Amino acid sequence: MDFRLGEAAEDVRRQARQFLEQHLTDEVKEKMHTTGVHHDWDFHRALSERGWVAPGWPVELGGQGYSVVEGLVMQEEFHQAGAPTYGVGTTMIVAGIIRRLGTPAQKELVIPRALRGEIIIVLGFTEPECGSVVVAAQTRAVRDGDEWVINGSKMFTTNAQEGDYAFMLTRTDPDAPKHKGLTTFLVPLRQPGVEIRPIRTLSGERTNLTFYTDVRVEDGLRIGEVDGGWDVMAVGLSLERAGAQGGESSRMLAALERWACTTPEGGSAPPASDPRVRARLGRAAAENEVSTLLARRSGWVQDSGALPGVEGSMAKLFASEAITRQSADLLDMLGPDGMRSEGDPTALAGGAAEYAYRFALGTTTYGGTSEVQRNIIAQRGLGLPRPR
Ligand SMILES: Cc1cc2nc3c(=O)[nH]c(=O)nc-3n(C[C@H](O)[C@H](O)[C@H](O)COP(=O)(O)OP(=O)(O)OC[C@H]3O[C@@H](n4cnc5c(N)ncnc54)[C@H](O)[C@@H]3O)c2cc1C
Which CATH class is domain 7-84? Predict the structure, then answer.
């Protein structure tokens, strides 16, 4: 494997940086910080005007036809800058599912609007009583002529307050074995019976608890076969895992590098002159490199037309656990002043390690917890038997 990126990818990196300079304004960052919402419609529209909602998709579908490496380089820049990309991320997971498994009418309804930046699609898998075991979903969908009626609740429906549709896992046959009675739908969110209650996580991110009372969805918005939702979910979950990578740790490391190279007021040398500081930063840099390469490997698998299974799980597991380890280690290195938050002018390294420490815990949870990823790697990668 050739790990060099090449001139075309480096050119994409330059363009991405220019775009971020123009559109990731202090105002956008401040809004994300205060609201905890990692989606911004102005930023999103600018992305779509630039043709970057799905840069790796073919030009005829509204993408740029970028190679996977070019797309990943762009993603690295966006993640590292902390751009508000959750909305585009979940939307393109679902657009990817529809591209593979949707009907022609669904493709026509969703794909052009998603790529033009007009709609946001959120993920409605997790429920208050089940997350890792998504197959235990209880939200009911009952057929009523050409429509389905949905009742239930979903937990952690991130960006539901911005969303046009939720890609939702429902139970359609409560008597069938668990994984055989599930069906997936694209549920329009702006309709009576949908209630969205905000939840704030430890890092200040906004997500939601959502309730569905007699919510109607036409049969044309059913994705896949009736009771065939588990097959659709397999595609969705592997696309979700494949999208995860360690941009937040690169951002933290960049802030810590700046801190390490600056001599503090009244000091005689920058912190980087201390070998213990260099050792910790060096360890974090090596881990970030592994996270980046695992994400690229997962991208290469996608580029070859396959779905990243074990590769996506490894990338997600490593990146999320690496930032958890690093943020604790670097916060410890900074000492008490490292605990001041972003926005406080006295915060060391702009509060980057403190924020990453709080943010990291969520990354080991969403998209499947670390335990779930290890089970997948053990089973599908190593061929070990299923856990009891
Ligand atoms: C910030 C954030 C945003 C999120 N956004 C979304 C979203 O947009 N849409 C959505 O649908 N969901 C979302 N989630 C939900 C996330 O996917 C779930 O939280 C996750 O799948 C875990 O489910 P759970 O919370 O029910 O925990 P549980 O499944 O109850 O797990 C509890 C603990 O048990 C462990 N465990 C469970 N099963 C096993 C097993 N078989 N073997 C070993 N250990 C096990 C888990 O690893 C975990 O440590 C989000 C979560 C967070 C934190």
Answer: mainly alpha
